[in-house]
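USER:
I wish I could look at a protein chain and see how it folds. I am handing you a single protein, as its sequence and its fold in token form. As I understand it, each token names a local backbone shape. I hope you can help me see how the letters and the tokens relate. The protein I mean follows directly.
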Amino acid sequence: MKKTKLRLTFNAPVVLGFAALCLVVLIAGLISKGASTRLLFSTYRSSLLDPLTYVRFLTHVAGHSGWEHFLGNMAYILLLGPMLEEKYGSLKLLIMMAICAVITGVINYILFPNISLCGASGIVFAFILLTSITSFREGEIPLTFILVAVIYLGQQVYQAIFVRDNVSNLSHIIGGIVGGGFGYLMNRKPKKKE
């Protein structure tokens, strides 16, 4: 009987790279007592003449406030991300993550001038909604997509209205919309020319 050797594979470079980046950013933030996270990995109202304002619109998703915040987001990203990266490809998933980051960063900047935003929660919700629409076919809406949207996004709307905590429910909702929209666009069949 032939023994097969087990080897580690780098199966999802974007997802694994993002998780590693978030870990490095978290450790740097802990060492600097939050200074590096505030400077580069949180988005907040700052001068539009400051080039870092635009950088933070993208990089805020890599910053986390602590281990619990980091582990909560990474559990979902490492669970859902590899499947999504395999289905859509590394480049498309990276583009979707970047779009989600920029949209949530800009909206937070415009609507919440006194609130600093960091973390990958918007990307987590994008992944959740994107996963639920992966079986989408033209002319059909998967029931799982509707249920996930109602449960996850409904929960965020409820919490935004009735629960006062330090969670950016709007970034979760925006992330879900970006993920669902991306899934819809990527799974549409091109129309045949007659």
